Amino acid sequence: FHDHALMIIFLICFLVLYALFLTLTTKLTNTNISDAQEMETVWTILPAIILILIALPSLRILYMTDEVNDPSLTIKSIGHQWYWTYEYTDYGGLIFNSYMLPPLFLEPGDLRLLDVDNRVVLPIEAPIRMMITSQDVLHSWAVPTLGLKTDAIPGRLNQTTFTATRPGVYYGQCSEICGAN
């Protein structure tokens, strides 16, 4: 797609530079060109066609990258006020709540407003599908180190896919205005 879009951009830049060169080097003595309805129609329709030629491959690639056909693991994440519920749907019945640790329960090395009592455990180098929803109000499920941010909306099931490429602790964080905590 990059090469496709770049060729279109090069063509447009070349045509604009050519038109500028002609404007600077010739005398504009032809008065019939000011009434050219055909020319106005062409330079109105041509940009629309160019945008369509860029948009169609882009949309196809966007939808192809959004879907993982065979994920190794599917996790459902339900947002509540002040905590998240996680459900490993591939392992029926494995459901737990994840609360942020209050400052009194933090141990040395723990991160304030990031550490939780129950962490989600994920495999590395495996495609993971995360289904995200909310039970009460709008929430935002975000893990910046994985490049993820998906809104949790009551009554709607959003989906995101990712692959953890290295072992470690990935902290999720609130990326919206979440109130007292």
**Total helical elements:** 2
Taken in chain order, the helices and strands follow as HHEEEEEEE
Oligomeric organization of the protein chains: single chain
**Shape designation:** elongated
Please provide a written account of the structure:
The chain is α+β, with helices and mostly antiparallel strands and 181 residues long. The chain has 2 domains: 1-23 and 36-66; 73-174, Cupredoxins -  blue copper proteins (Immunoglobulin-like), CATH 2.60.40.420. The protein is built from 2 helices and 7 strands; from the N terminus they run H-H-E-E-E-E-E-E-E. It has a 5-stranded mixed sheet, with no helix packed on it. Strands 5-6 form a two-stranded antiparallel ribbon. The protein is elongated. The chain starts with a helix and ends in an 18-residue tail after the last strand.
Keyword list:
electron transport; membrane; two-stranded antiparallel sheet; alpha+beta; 30% helix; 181 residues; 2 domains; five-stranded mixed sheet
